[in-house]
Structures are given as structure tokens and as C-alpha cells.
Fold this sequence. Notes:
5-stranded mixed beta sheet, about 180 residues
Amino acid sequence: xxxxxxxxxxxxxxxxxxxxxxxxxxxxxxxxxxxxxxxxxxxxxxxxxxxxxxxxxxxxxxxxxxxxxxxxxxxxxxxxxxxxxxxxxxxxxxxxxxxxxxxxxxxxxxxxxxxxxxxxxxxxxxxxxxxxxxxxxxxxxxxxxxxxxxxxxxxxxxxxxxxxxxxxxxxxxxxxxxxxxxxxx
Length: 185
């Protein structure tokens, strides 16, 4: 792993990596922090399902990268099955471990271009070929717009069923209209 004192990588390093690897990506700077799927989706006007999240896990002590989309939750039993191990042998990396392995802070981590190339899995339900998506752009106020075709090509990712769908959102009822409006006095 990288030394703890190394400077984190950022959007410039990510865009240089994209250029070196033939990834036709655009860096988006929406002018607000985008460290979560809902914030990123709102910032660029996309459905959450088009926002990728990259997470570092340890499987049997070895680091792996999982790329999922939207607000779906990682399923540890499904991941364990995909990795061919038991649930107890799969854990999420700490923020410091993820930074040391990838060079990027949590909430800004792209799906590639890391200090260390990690074996990568994508959630096959949502990360399918032929989509335009956004992912971490190397800073908490940056997003990377790319195609899933480029993502799958440069990571050699394996697809598996890794998540459980987020609970369906029940639309909130609008507050009741007052029966009569107050008048100015």
C-alpha cells in the first residue's frame, strides 16, 4: 500500500490517466459537493441509477473494488457468493485503507486510475454496457462523466449480482392546503 503521508490524487491525475488509457471522459464541476449518490444525481440532473459508487473491500484479506450504481445497498451475502468465500471474509475498507490503496478520498473515488490496480467487480444489474454515467471525479466537488463501455474495458471488471435494491421511495404527501388563507393585517 502507499504510504500514509502521500498526497491524495485529484481530478488532474484522473484526467491524465483517462487520456493515457483512451477513456473519453469529461470532468464535471457542478459547483457543489457531490460525495454521495443523491447529491451527485441532484447536482447534474441525473437519476441516481446513473451515478456510480466505487467501494474498496477486503476479500480474504485482499483488496477488491466494487462498482455499484444508485442507492442500492451492497449485499454481503451476494458479494461473498460472487467472490467464492464466506460472508465473514468480506469487509469494507476503512477510509484510510481506501485512500492508501487508491490515492483518492472516499466520496471522490473514481472506478479506475488508482495508485494500485485493483481487481474490479461491477453490479451487473445496473452497470451494463451502453450507458453514460457519472462517477467520482477525484475530488468531492467533481464528477467524471464516462461510458460503461470504457469502464468495463479498462478495468476488465467481472459482473455479478452484488446489491439489494434500495427500498422503494414512497412519495411524500404534500402538506394539506389551509382551509382558508390568512389575510395581511
